Amino acid sequence: MERLMRRVLKAAILGATGLVGIEYVRILSQHPYIKPAYLAGKGSVGKPYGEITRWQTVGQIPKEIADMEVKPTDPKMMDDVDLIFSPLPAGAAGPVEEEFAKQGFPVISNSPDHRFDPDVPMMVPEINSHTVTLIDEQRKRRDWKGFIVTTPLCTAQGAAIPLAPIFMNFKMEGAFITTIQSLSGAGYPGIPSLDIVDNILPLGDAYDAKTVKEVYRLLSETKRNVQEPDIKEVSLSATTHRIATIQGHYEVAYVTFKEETSAEKVKEAMDQFKGEPQELKLPSAPEKPILMTNKDNRPQVFFDRWAGDPPGMSIVVGRVNQVNKKTVRYVSLIHNTVRGAAGGGVLTAELLTEKGYLPK
User: Fold this and answer.
1) CA–CA separation, 108 and 122 (whole Å)
2) N or C: more exposed end of the chain, with fewer CB within 10 A?
3) Start and end of every Semialdehyde dehydrogenase NAD-binding domain (predicted)?
């Protein structure tokens, strides 16, 4: 029997010269079947990508990509493109992504503008892959052939991925999260040096609130092994900060429970956590979404942000401690521009391919 060949998907990357855009370029240049075919920008149209891009990630710009011309963000120029990756800024992203979806393009967005549209999935593939079916409702309601799928805020992913196996398996009462976030989360050129050097910058009530809101949605869409408490009874709180590291968001969580809960059992649940991407052996799926460390001085941002295979796709969790019989503390680290952005977007595209929403 003749073996069917997998189709190569041609991807357009919007904002391709930005900090998340370059991670898309890096990841897709090595991808087995999704390739960067169209690099879109705004102020650099007509120039070679390698000439105008600040490559603030590992490795070098691949030569075949360095010579590609940056092109306008115009769906009419993308006849041979199969899907769109959109890490555009808040506010600018919404109408652009809608126009692409109207024109029949699948859009995978890292931007916040559509995260709480009721017919748009906000996806971490290991947590809520079943929500892809919202695409069918979206197409019917909006009468377009394309669609939009979003990924959550990087900070929310750093909180939700370790919390998911806890909420799935234990009677979790609440979680109190403190984040220490890197500069790349603010994009380039980012925060003025005099605001961040020799300082810890609180991100404020609005950022705290949107982090909590997104974590609530993700946990509400998990498939659980315990039936209580209802997500509406769970108390979540986040206090968010920016510091002068380049990549990697560090988060400290205190999780409370309605009954006595062993820290060792919590560690075991996180260590064993897997989802549909692991079952399907998707190319960007790490064998373990959560890597546990028993060292009392890890995770560390410098050493652990690239953890996993592919690098940067696993969250590292350590310093798990029994605070009291009903409280467990742990520390986590997520690579914010890889797992928390571009890598998560590519993993979502792979899942959509397997589910039949992208050509296979």
Assistant:
1) 10
2) N
3) 10-135
Please state, in angstroms and rounded to a whole number, the distance separating the CA atoms of residues 271 and 193.
38
Q: What does the pLDDT read at residue 324?
A: 98
**Do 89 and 44 lie in a common domain?**
yes
Range of the domain at 91: 2-153+342-354
Q: State the first-to-last Cα distance of the chain, in angstroms, to the nearest integer.
A: 19
- Average confidence (pLDDT) over 190-207: 96
Q: What are phi and psi of 332, to 5 degrees?
A: -130, 160
Residue 258's CATH number: 3.30.360.10
Per residue in 252-287, pLDDT tens?
999 999 999 999 999 999 999 999 999 999 999 999
Closest CA to 13 of 33, 44, 35, 32: 35
- pLDDT, tens digit (0-9, with 9 covering 90-100), for 284-331: 999 999 999 999 999 999 999 999 999 999 999 999 999 999 999 999
Q: Is the dihedral of CA 262, 265, 271, 275 positive or negative?
A: negative
pLDDT of residue 2: 41
Residues in Cβ contact with 255 at an 8 Å cutoff, skipping those fewer than 6 apart: 163, 166, 172, 174, 175, 266, 327, 328, 329, 330
Asked if 130 is an active-site residue, the reply is: no
Shared domain check, 79 and 162:
no
Q: Cβ distance 26 to 58 under 8 Å?
A: yes
> Do the Cβ atoms of 345 and 85 come closer than 8 Å?
yes
At 24-76, the pLDDT tens digits run: 999 999 999 999 999 999 888 999 999 999 999 999 999 999 999 999 999 99
Contact (CB, 8 A) for 360 and 7: yes
The total domain count for the chain is: 2
Catalytic residue among 31, 114, 130, 154: 154
